Structures are given as C-alpha cells and as structure tokens.
Amino acid sequence: MKRIKIALLHLLPIVGDIRYNQELIERSVKLASNKEVDWIITPELSVSGLQFRRRIGIDWIECQPNSWMNRFCQLVKSIDTTVFLGSPEKGEDGKYYNSVFVIDSNGQIIGKQRKINVLSDGWSTAGKVIEPIIIDDIHVGIMICADAYTTNVAEPLYQKGAEIIIAPASWGPGLHGPNGEWEQRSIETGLPIIVCNRTGEDETVSFWQAESSLIKNGERIFTHQSKQSAIITFEWDIERQQLHSAQIEVEYIE
C-alpha cells in the first residue's frame, strides 16, 4: 500500500528579497523534516515572490543548479526527503522560466516542470514538456498555478499515467482569483490535486486569504489559509485515493 506523508509549506515570502526567502525555505524545510514526511512542497516562485520583476528585474536569474540550489540540494539530502521547489530559472536557451524542481532524498534534481500558461507572468517563457515525474514509484504530475485554467496540462498528465497532481500556486482571491479551476480539473481527471498556495502580498496582489487545499472529485477535503507561514501535514493513501487519517496537522512558523 502506497502511503505518502506530505508537508505543504504555506509560506509568507517577501517579494524580491531572495536571501530572506531562501532562508525561510531552508528553515521551513528543516522544521517539516522533523515530522518525518516523505514530500515537502513549496508554493509557486517561493524563492522570489510572484511580482519580483517590478523590484529586482530578471538579470539575477541563473541557470540551475546555481550555488544556492546546490547547497539546498545537500540540505534536502541531509533530511532524507523529497522537495518540490518553486523558483525562476534561466534556460539553456537563454530564456526565463517559471519552474518547479523536484529534488529527491539523495539531493539530486530528478525532474522539473516549467509553467505552461504564462501569459499573466510577463517575464517567463512557456514550457513545452508535460510529463509526470516518477517519485517513490509514484507518477506525479505538476500543474503550476494558472496551468489549472484549462485542461491543457491536467489532461496530458492524466493520459500519461499521473496518479496525483501537485499544484504549487501563488494565486489569491479577487478579480482573477481561483474560481473552481482546481476542482474542475480534479473532476475531469479523477485525480487528487494538492494545492500548495501562499500568504502575504506582493505589489498588486493579496494572498492573505489564498488557500492551500487537497481536492478530490471536485470537493475540497481540507483547506488552509493563514496570516503567517505554516506547515500543513497529512498522509495520503495513493492506492485508495483517500486520506490515510482524518488528522491534518498545522504548525505555524514564527
């Protein structure tokens, strides 16, 4: 029976403050590892914040792994878990991408997903590859924020054998906020969708009421919003497609 203990890092990053965000991620990952989790998930662009371009531009973005990523990979190895990390990257083609990297318990980057639906980002190029990543013998799809708007990411992931979809996001309520997209994708694919969102605010977007959620068959099994960074921990039964336990643990990060 496949059971995965998962920690969602519902973080409060500071837009454009790369070092602060990196330290917040490192501290949060260490705290989550104390719960003996298998996977740790960060929000979309947890390293930079969503609207970083307004403050610091894009020239700082590097090819990955850069020096910090290499150090972070060693940290992940030391805690023997797998981390989904949302970060900008410069591609081998010189273009910029909104990406999620999967770092396994050996400290290796075993895969990444580049955001497909990037029209609202204004700085990143659309990714071209949509493929599940095999983690702990589980086929995992990654759907980044606005990639949930249509079926063009979730459906190919399902068709290619994904058993679960991880959805890192920086998506708060409002005029263009989420309006049932994650629920609809879960109905269409029949797959659980795990949304790791964030809190705080950027230049023009508020995330104070943004929600991290576990969604199955169009229903939110649980949801979380908070004014400060938090670690949300639960255990998912892959084979039965249900929570192993009804207990959802929330720990706030000071």
TrEMBL record:
<dbReference type="InterPro" id="IPR003010">
    <property type="entry name" value="C-N_Hydrolase"/>
</dbReference>
<feature type="domain" description="CN hydrolase">
    <location>
        <begin position="4"/>
        <end position="238"/>
    </location>
</feature>
<dbReference type="GO" id="GO:0016811">
    <property type="term" value="F:hydrolase activity, acting on carbon-nitrogen (but not peptide) bonds, in linear amides"/>
</dbReference>
<dbReference type="InterPro" id="IPR050345">
    <property type="entry name" value="Aliph_Amidase/BUP"/>
</dbReference>
<dbReference type="Pfam" id="PF00795">
    <property type="entry name" value="CN_hydrolase"/>
</dbReference>
<protein>
    <submittedName>
        <fullName>Carbon-nitrogen hydrolase family protein</fullName>
    </submittedName>
</protein>
<dbReference type="InterPro" id="IPR036526">
    <property type="entry name" value="C-N_Hydrolase_sf"/>
</dbReference>
<keyword id="KW-0378">Hydrolase</keyword>
